Amino acid sequence: MKILFVIKDVEYIDPMGIMLLSALAKEKGHATAVSILADGKLKEEILAFRPDIVAFSAKTGEHKYYLAANNQIKAIDKTIFTVIGGPHATFFPEIISQYEIDALCVGEGDDAWPELLTAIENKTSIDSIPNIVTKGNFKAGVPPVMRERRRALDDLPFLDRELFYSSTRLGRFPMRSFMVSRGCPYKCTYCFNHKYNMLYKGKGALHSRMSVERVISELKELKSRYETQFIKFYDDIFVMKDDEWLDEFSERYPKEIGVPFHCLMRANLLTEPILLKLKKAGLASMSMSIESGNDRVRNEVLKRNMSKETLIEAFDLCHKHNVPTFSNTIFAIPGTTLKEDIESLDLNLRCRVTFGEFPLFFPYPKTELANYAIKMGAFDGNFDKLHMSYQAGSPLTCFTDEEKHLQRNLSLLATVVLWKPSLRNLVVNHLIKLPMNKVDFLMYYFVKAYLVKTRIYPMKFSVLNTIRGVYESFVLEKFKHTEEIFTKEEMKKVS
């Protein structure tokens, strides 16, 4: 069979989920291709490739574009089987009864996906496949049948990177994304992991990871096929504890891979022995989320369960060993004011964070913080209207238009302040009050590009590739807004 994966856009992060699904499909002898909605060629690619199956993976906020694409596909050929997976399908399985979709995949798809393909090919019923929701087995208010959470990861195929590397800018971008593990046992209220874990309650461990041998094998293959200057490990938490896995990784990775890497950690898990082993392996930079500089907000509202002192100690440890840091901090959290956002910026400054992102809070469906915003009357629960970007203001009604203006400006300029702390008072007392303009975004963009390229993900680019990257970011992207691909009438049908 021929399978077409549809994705909204491709930036500089490998779509590892689709790459895995493509590899699993190819193991079964199927052909795969990809269509990028932002290119505006979906119709002609459907007619040229003539897929038997079209697959989407949708996050809430982007799901409406995939639903519009699904409508387009069904208008071309109703016999094409369409399936949607990802967070939106997982938490809103009722869309199977609302739209012309043939199936949903909820939760993990590693084992459900191959079973689904086999059933479709053999023309047998798909209603009894665990993790697959159909019009035949969906019952409102009844949780879907779930299989055990996958514990063994070593037997999964290597990611099908060629699917994207051969046809998008990812092929020439020398940073490669990778994950050695799955799952997070923590209960942060803004994240869907806790709700996801409840979906799998009693069905396996909350965290699992590949053996070091499996990790090394795939990275060797990756290096042999594609230029690789840097690896970004995208695990929610790369290291949970100082153990034999870390000992083996710190010994083998520098000898057999030898490429600098970035990883994500929780500040309360970082110790000096762990940091030294990671640095020995090739750690070039590290992400640790701060989320809020206010103790009450961080621990009572966000449930991070981390003291300010713990955060400072972890970042000081990185500073001591010359490891650049990347922090994430949320602004415009329900029940807060600009005072707490400025307090968060100041904690980033105290932690001497190298580079930070300061996104405005957008509610993820079914998360505790989203429900809190709904309960307090700050959000109406309409996730279809969300559009997550730095240009979009907070969707919460608990903030005035003036507060949203200040939040939006601070979210951009806070990154600039981390680069030049001497600008703190000028930004906080004056610049965030000015009308938002392209200068704010350009300052943010160039500071981000400089810090990311030189400190967080240090890589070497030719002059040609540097110019091309700027051109793609500023010129091509101007004409590649998914909102313009679908007509207002098409978007109304999925709102």
Describe this structure in words.
The protein is α/β, with parallel strands linked by helices and 495 residues long. It has two domains: 2-150 and 483-492, Response regulator (Rossmann fold, 3-Layer(aba) Sandwich), CATH 3.40.50; 174-453, TIM Barrel (Alpha-Beta Barrel), CATH 3.20.20.70. The chain has 19 helices and 14 strands. The chain has helices spanning 16-27, 42-49, 63-76, 87-91, 112-122, 162-165, 193-199, 212-225, 244-256, 272-281, 295-301, 308-320, 338-350, 368-375, 401-419, 424-429, 438-456, 463-474, 488-492, and strands at 2-7, 31-36, 53-57, 81-85, 103-105, 132-133, 175-178, 181-182, 208-209, 230-233, 261-265, 283-288, 325-328, 355-357. The protein has a six-stranded mixed beta sheet, sandwiched between helices. A six-stranded parallel beta sheet has the order 7-10-11-12-13-14, with helices on both faces. A two-stranded antiparallel sheet has the order 8-9. Helix 3 links the parallel strand 3 (53-57) and strand 4. Helix 9 packs parallel to helix 10 (272-281), helix 13 (338-350) packs parallel to helix 15 and helix 15 packs parallel to helix 17. The longest helix is centred in the C-terminal third of the chain and has 19 residues, at 401-419. The protein is globular and about 65 Å long.
In DSSP terms (H or I, runs of 4 or more residues), the helix count works out at 19
| Mean pLDDT figure | 92
Main pleated sheet: 6 strands, mixed
CATH fold group of the largest domain: TIM Barrel
Bin the helical content: 40-55%
Instruction: Estimate the strand proportion.
Output: 5-15%
Oligomer: single chain
Based on Cα principal axes, name the global outline: globular
Order the strands across the largest sheet as they lie in space: 2-1-3-4-5-6
